[in-house]
Each structure stands twice: as structure tokens, then as C-alpha cells.
Amino acid sequence: MKTGVKRRKEFHGSVGDIVFDLIIWVFLFFAVVVCVYPFIYVLSVSLSSGQAVNQGKVVLFPVDLNLEALKTVLNYKQLWISYGNTFFYTVVGTVLNVVFTCLAAYPLSRKRFCLRKQMNFLLAFTMYFSGGLIPVYIIVTKLGLYDSRLVMILPVLISAYNVMICRSAFESISEELFEEAAIEGANDFYILTKIAVPLIKPTLAVLTLYYAVARYNDFFSAMLYISDSTKEPLQIFLRRILLQASMEIMQTTNINMGALSQSTIQVRYVCIVVSVVPIMLVVPLVQKYLVQGTMLGAVKG
Amino acid sequence: MSNDKKKKTWKQLLYRDRYLLIMIIPVVIYYLVFCYLPMTGIVMAFNQYQVGSGFAGIYTSKWVGLKWFKQFFGSIYLGRLVRNTFLLQFFSLIFGFPIPILFAIAVTQVANKKARKIIQVSTYLPYFISTVVVCGMINNFLSPSGGIINQLLNMIGIESINFMNLPQWFRPIYVISGSWQSFGFNSIIFVAAIMGISPDLYEAMDVDGANRRQVIWHLVLPSIKPTIILLLIMSLGTMMSVGFEKVYLLYNTAVYETADVIQTYVYRQGIQSSNYSYATAVGLFNSVINFVIVFIANRISRKVTDTAIW
Asked: Which of B33, B132, B287 has its CB closest to that of A242?
């Protein structure tokens, strides 16, 4: 890999190559700006004075640094209730997701497993066909899960696609390791937890990221099954503020009507900032494993 | 060993694999309850399920045969929903597919490893942002009152456009924002394929005196061709499955004409209007189409690339 990069350096020189380099840099610069600018803009609006925002002065950096909008949002109780709920759903949900994914993937990766074919089909079929929205909705509500915290966790316990990724990772472990352990009398639980799982940590890191992000961002389950505002996750709260133009945050504070119109859009942008921060912190940490995770998913499976 | 295998009865096999079975039992329960039990609920598409008729009502309501399908096929919705569903995915593919490839080629031209990492990570980020936030950003950026896009348009002397309420804007907004969100992430696999090209091949091109465009054209592109074909076929399988959330969060009655897709119609008919049986029938129609498309895509994939998803 390294020599490949070095090699390419040697192509520099001709005028055509310089022009080509320039085009590439302009293209990459544009790509990065397009991806990063919206977030910088949202952050800058959040931290500017309401007046500057209203006059359209904020373009890149904050104008008249002002933390009023931020304070207003952070003082709003429902934000923290929904944040807490999301935290609970994400942590508990992700742990269960990863545990169940391993429990499904490990037996499927053992060639000797007597029900391997049948179980494989049981999972794979769900990737191609589902009962559809309404039957799932009726069954889940009839099971008494409506407005229960479990409804945010159980119906999306396992993703067959992620099981396939995990299975490929287990399969890539040398068979001798398993045989040796089996000869020494280790049972499958011991092998799974003490030998197999530690060896596929990079894959599990990616799956954890995928599951956690999906949990954190889950809006659909909550829209269908949660109506109690003390159980609502962050995404439902965000939808009310960002898309349904809810004024609830401003109504709790004693901002006068003039300031109200100015701060509506700011309050929304602050909510975006507050909700996106955890994602921005986590993704760069796991990104070095991403390549491995995506490759496994697409190539094998 | 092989002799040993033949002799084993099912009982012995199950005993030998008992730990594996214990592991997979909770998984099986999950799949039976949350995937296969709902599949039996498809029977609602053929009967007249009443609100409040309980669990048994799913299976025992009055049989009406193909009534709901006939109603759907005779309505104006069929054409509109199928067209919108297909076109949103089709344009997303046409517009969204080449960008990750171009981006991967460009980013692998960067020799500095650190710069490359920074560029890549910053383009991944939008992929992990929730649909609600993305739609919230779109909605507020495009707002005619104080949205930055309209502010910029006003600056160059163009009047504000009420993007979210004009049917002709829905598809571009959906497609461009989708591509924005996913191009960085989707490029990962192409970057990996390009980085995997043997240095010897670059050296050979170097010896032949090739310039960088020639290297890309004659070495890089042919090397990632199998990956491109595989991913293209796989995305064909999603041709009739539009992400429900994004359409639902972005659309409003003013743009139904171009925005309403099968899934959102099922949601409105089923969950909001409680026409459960009718909505189940429309949903089944969508599931069957999807199944057929994925099946065909998988067959093609197996033939062309030796890779199948099952």
C-alpha cells in the first residue's frame, strides 16, 4: 500500500499532470466543503446573536458571539428527558443487538452445526421478504408493546445483514484454533466468548457503531409505537422542533415576541448541534475499522 | 471421521451441538415472533379486518378474496405510487452511483496519508446523521423565510422559492440530499479496492511512461470494475424500496403528486386511517415486487460476478 502511494508521486511533472492534480484538488475541496459547511453554518447560527442571524449576516463564522439561544435550549427540560431516553435505548439496545448478533452468527459459522442450512434460510429469507408495515404494527401492538420502552428495543433486535457480516468474520478465523480448543474440552460458549469474539473485535466495533447509530437515530419505531412524552426519544423531540415548527421551547422562557421570531430558527439550529455532537465524537474514533466492516459485508455474506 | 458422521442419528447430532442450539434458540424466537408471525398477518390482505377485533381477528375476519387488490389496481394511486417510488430510486441511482467512484479515485490520488484521512472522515459524517436532522436541515435551509439558500438567491437578485411546496422540486431535493449523505460512506469500498492494487502494476505503468490520466484509465478503472458491477447489481435490488422516513418527513399534501410513494401511502391508509386490510394488501404488493426484483438482481449477480447475497 505504502509503495503504491510513493510510486504515484513520481508521476508528477508534466503540465498535463499538474492540471490534472489541480482538478482533483478542486473536486476534493468542493466535496469536503459540501459535507462540512452545513454543520459549520448551523453551529455558527447557534452561537450568534439573534439580530445578526435575522439580518442574514451569519455566513461562515458566528457574528456577535451570543449564547442566549444555546442557554434557552439547554434549559428546556423535555430535551433532557428525550436525550435520557435515547441514551437508554441506545446503550441497552446496542448491547443486546451485538450479543444477539454474535449468538446468531457463531452457530451459523460452524460448518458442523446440524441445523446450519435451516437456520441460515430462516435469517436470509427475512432479508428478502417481510410481512410489511401493517402486520408488524398489529402484531407488535397486540403483544402489548405499545408505549412500552421494550418496543424501542425488541422489534429491531437483530439485523440479518449484520449477522452475515459477523458470520463471515467468524468464518475467517483459522479452523485449527477451534479444533484445538474443542480437543482441550472447551464448549462452544467458552470458545465463543474467550476465543472467537476477541479475534473479531474490529468487525464487532463496526457492527456496534452501525447498531448504535441506528438506535440513536431511530425515529420510525418511536413514531409508530410511542405516544407518551416521558418515553419519547430525542428524534421525536427533534422532529417537533425542526419540522413541525413547535414553539414549545420559546414558550417556556420569557422572551418577548420581537425576539421570538428571531430566535425560532436559532433554537432549531441549536437543537441540531446538541443532537449531532455525540455522532461527531464517535464516528472518527471508529472510522479506521469502517473499511474492514464494509468490505466484509459486500464481498462475502 | 466420515464413517463416524454417517452413523450419527439426529438425536446424537442435536446432543453434540447442544451449546450451539442453546445459543440460537433466543435468535429463533426473535425471528418467529417479530418476522414470521407478522408474515402470517398477510392474511389480512384477503379479509376484512376490523379495528379492535383482537389478535384472533387477524385470522378469522370475513374473507373477501382479492377485493382490496382490485380496489388498489382500480385507483389512481397505483400508477402514481409506482412511478414515484421507481423514479426516486432510479434518479438516486443515476445521480448517486458515479459520485462515490469519482470521489474514491480522486481521494486515492492524494499522497499525504493524513490529508487523505481528514478528507475521508469529513465526507463520512453526513452518513451517520439521523434522517430527522437531515430533513430538518433541508427544510430550514430551503425555507422561504430566513433559509440560507433563499437568502443567497435573494442576494443575486432571484426571488425566494418555496422549495418544499413545489412538486417539481421534490425529486431533486430528495436525490441530491441523499447523494450528499451517502457518497463519502459509499466510496469506502472503492477506496479499499483502489488501495489494494499491487504496486508492481503502478511500477509497470511508470516504466511505460504513462501519465496519471492513463494510469487511472488503464489501471485503476479496470481494477475496480468488478466492485462497480457488483454494487450496481446490488443497488438494482432496491429499485422499488424507497426509504420511508425521508419521504415522510419531507413531503406534504402540496407535493404528493411527485412525492407520495407506496410506503407512505400504506402508512397513511393503515396507521392513520385504520384501513388495515387495504393497507396490508398494498404493502404485500410492494413486498412481492421487491422480492422479485431482489431475486432477479441476485441471479444476475451470481452469473456475472460469482457473488450472491444468499
From this structure: B132
Touching B: A residues 91-120, CB under 8 Å: 100, 103-104, 106-108, 110, 112-115, 119
Query: What CA–CA distances, in Å, run from A301 to A44, A86, A298, B188?
Result: 43, 31, 7, 18
DSSP letter for each residue of B23-75 = HHHHHHHHHIIIIIHHHHGGGGGGB-PPTT-HHHHHHHSPB-TTHHHHHHHTS
Cβ distance A298 to B234 less than 8 Å, yes or no, reads yes
The verdict on A272 touching B (C-beta cutoff 8 Å) is yes
Note whether A160 and A126 are within 8 A (CB).
Answer: yes
Task: Tell the burial category of B56 from Cβ atoms under 10 Å away from its Cβ (0-12, 13-18, 19+).
Answer: exposed
Cell of A250: 420559546
Please tell me the pTM assigned to this model: 0.88
Per the structure block, which three cell numbers stand in for A191? 470458545
A146 touches chain B (CB under 8 A): no
Give the pLDDT of chain B (310 residues) as one tens digit per residue.
444 556 678 888 888 889 999 999 999 999 999 999 999 999 999 999 988 777 888 898 889 999 999 999 999 999 999 999 999 999 999 999 999 999 999 999 988 889 998 999 999 899 999 999 999 999 999 988 878 899 889 889 999 999 999 999 999 999 999 999 999 999 988 998 898 888 888 888 888 888 888 888 989 999 898 888 888 888 887 788 788 899 999 999 999 999 999 999 999 999 999 999 999 999 999 999 999 998 888 888 778 766 555 4
